[in-house]
Amino acid sequence: MTEINGLPSDWIVFDSPDDVADYVVEHLLQLADDAIRARGRFTLVTAGGTTPQLCYQRLAQQSADWDNWHIYMGDERCLPAEDAERNSVSLTQAWLFQGDIPEKNIHFMPTELGAELAAKAYRDTVNRIETFDVVLLGMGEDGHTASLFPGHLHPEADSVVTEHHSPKPPPDRVSLSYDRLSRSRVVLKLITGSGKREAVKQWLAGADFPIVRVQGQTTRVLIDSAAL
Prior knowledge:
The strands form two sheets. The protein has a seven-stranded parallel sheet. Strands 4-8-7 form a three-stranded antiparallel sheet. The longest helix is centred in the N-terminal third of the chain and has 23 residues, at 17-39. Helices cover 31% and strands 21% of the residues. By secondary structure, it is of the alpha/beta class. Helix 1 crosses helix 2 (50-59). The protein has seven helices and ten strands.
């Protein structure tokens, strides 16, 4: 970790994406232990993207009280269930294929049904959870997070929203809303790579990007030096 003057106090700078992933995994294991001791379970909202994948690959090598971990999705693309471009498929390949987490504890978005039906079904799933323990978020080069894009409006009251005009294919997606993502004890925003540098610059200058709008009870930005 590196100290850089002028950054917000909740930003932590690392030398590389691998260092970010190492920190996240260590932090998740501790937060999970604390949650299971306090409430009997640990609820984690996962993110797509390269750096979250590094985290999942590392989690696959760890020992934990997996029976009490519950896995949720921040967003998903409307594609066939086994399509390699789905977040659920990459998550499974990197981590969940091991079977250490009970299948009943893994809550994928059924986007193979189409955006509207999937959103309705997932609302029923996430509305049973008052507050997530941890939400992981990545950021696109345009400042988007999950499938919440700059300039796109969604119903404020819905816990799960649909997107039919994604700037990147596929156009149809389902996402947890700003409010639902923010209803978390801890939000970890993972920002890595030089391609994010311009968005980070605008973020620090006050841009109202989607990534900025998600705030948990505790929020940390975990960023590598290439993104600054």
